[in-house]
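Model the whole thing, not chain by chain.
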Amino acid sequence: MNAVNGLTIAVPRGALFDGTVDLLTALGLDTDELRSNDRKLLFEDIGVITMRPSDVPTYVEAGAADLGVTGKDVLLEQSAQTPGEGGREVYELLDLGYGRCVMVLASKAGPDPALEALRRLGVMRVATKYPRIAARHLEETGRQGEIVEVKGSVELAPLTGMVEAIVDLTATGTTLRENNLVVREEIVVCTARLIANPVAHKLKAAAIDALLARLRELPAAARGRGAPDVPEPLSSA
Amino acid sequence: MIHPIPSGTRDVLPEETREVRAITDTLRGVFERHGYGEVYTPALEYESVLARADMAEAKPAYRVFDETGAVLVLRSDMTVPIARVVATRYAASDTPLRFCYFAHCYRGVRPQRGHPRELLQAGIELIGAPAPHGTVEALTVLCHSLDATGLKDYRVGLGDASLFPALMASLGVPDSARPALLERLVLRDFVGLELGLSEAGLAGEAAQLLLDVPQRRGGPEVLADGVGSIADAVTGLRQVHELLEPDVAERVIFDLGLVRNIGYYTGAVFDVYDPELGAPIGGGGRYDELLGRFGRSLPAVGFALGVDRLHIALAGEERGTGALLAASSPKGEPLSADGGAAPRIAGAS
């Protein structure tokens, strides 16, 4: 079958890939090659392009894809820091429900080293791959922090004493536990979101609305959807 | 030697300038034929003067001090300076007044294709012409201008800035919750809007309407059921639609969720889309309260096109047709001998 309603969809490789491909299958797309060929990036006959999740908003904003699937964590990290700065100009259309993770602030087990640093030194150092989310969370909770951006395993940073805490995404908490870290605060629950290019949203309105209607009709199991059980304190920031 | 220029700015060299000039000359011709007189205003203005307008997301981003210590800003649009001009230089003139401009504006955006920090805008302002006739004239000039440049596949999204606030008021959304909900709509975050509605204690039909109405867009059929609270806005849009010439009306997509990120809009608002570009080429709307802030209360409407974006869209539509190659000679010769306009733009005069 051809692309869904003639739309181009940006599909994230990585943790959200399987859920997204299941969804496309449920919509009637022939996803065999998409599943089997993990080196190919462009699947023109089914209107799918694949990329890392943090690139999805970039392609959708530029109009290289009409729609995309990415995590709320990516959208929050790329949203505007200050009014007027302009975040990603994409429409966030639907919470797809799968890929549920929690953005947490964690520190070493035992007496919280972050609290001690705040009390005695006035600043807590926080390592993260999400510097904007971390900075916003500290600001909104009235704490001074020094954000240390790292690209690799964030868990290493507090174990070496470089920082007192981390802000990271966790699905099960296993990696945190294995590194003797405990969750101190839950910042926001993140799930997969369907986003759209603003121009495609107008010029291909019928196709996009038809797709949305079909997605809403899919049984909860196919969408992996649970009720959004935690409000989103960051989304109003 | 490489000498840098500020992020979001760029140099425009002769070949590109020729193409841009062909576009602006065409637009100027259409604006002038419709009776719009071109104005220049200073790029630098007093911050305290421009601050009379509610610019929201498009506030001036660049500030300097002059020799007396006054704060100057680089203008972020031309609508507010022209409102100032009308109040000071045309304080007693008959209306309507018609102005057009081709001017650089400066914004603190994240630089990317079509989003420069120094932005060349081409636009008109129609001062003293209330809805619906003023709106119809602005939309007509807009479409005639774009047609003259040769842009083929564009559409104009038409909505009403007062629609969502009116809907919230009539459905009993608490005052305290309204700004946050409107902000989520401005951010196009429908998931956040749905959550925000339930957090504000709204459920059932009211919540469903607040979520559905801003997602309604399409032909005149979306104006069919103007339920009580949005009846005024929908009636206004219907009046505009009935007065449009068929060639303009066929370009219009009604969009009940259209909101612009500039605060001074009061009624009809519009955005211009082309499939070749992932962002609007331009837009505008009614700003019936802005002039009053400068001391001469007049209804007004206007639009601005991003000339660079229009150029990108034209180049995109021409790709593969050979028209662009024909328009810009690689050796830097004049575009054509027969009047100086590019082939795609020849129909203008």
